[in-house]
Request: fold
Amino acid sequence: MDSQKKYTPQFSFEFFPPKTPEGAEKLRATRDELARLKPKYFSVTFGAGGSTQQGTIDTVLEIQKAGLSAAPHLSCVGSTRESISEILNTYKENGVNRIVALRGDMPSGMQEAGSFRYANELVEFIRKETGDFFHIEVAAYPEVHPQSHDAQSDLLNFKRKVCAGANAAITQYFYNRDAYFRFIDDCEKAGVDIPVIPGIMPITNYTQLARFSDMCGAEIPRWIKKHLQGFGDDRDGIRAFGEEVVTQLCEKLLQAGAPGLHFYTMNQVGPSKAIWENLGINPGS
Reply:
């Protein structure tokens, strides 16, 4: 963990673009409440094949206009060099200087990936087009990307993104801290030296969490799964247990030298804010 301890911890929150006027209003309230904690930035997801492209852009620009820092996700899949260049110019013109560059998921029925096959190609293109204007975050997978053949090939893929010009990384969420520690050890042995910020998923709904985890390859440890199953329909019990488990995970990560936390909010205030307050993080840290 020595490579991570030298970085000043940064904290951030992730949103997804709302699909309805009611969702947009809810997100504004969530954003304003979390903004009081003075995070480094808010990231905004980008749907498979660019399915939420305009929603992502609109949400990002609204965050920027509110005087806050936004980091839009940008996906390779289904994108062309021309479309990516146009989006980058839009962000530059509006003062957005952070990008989360991802390969993205191939939507159902799509046969061609687009101009870019992998995230490292997208990162390289952003650097070629815009130099050092953007601070580029990429994805990391402590428990190995679900489509990777093995841990070593996944690590090499990650290193390619770093060599292409990534500044930092955000991990897929996990509940096994040893997976993160081992991943950092492997990165250090491979000569990879950028901040790798743990992605944190609050636990509020077991069924939803199990479905997400099956899709993205994030393991729910057996002991956590058994506790959650035991609560049945007791939502308050699930939330209280989840808050305790995730708070303890975050404590261990920060104590070991993790360079911050990135909360997957699911556009909700309560769960992420409760963990933040349990950790005693000072606004603007």
User: Anything to note?
Assistant: The first strand starts at residue 10 and ends at 15.
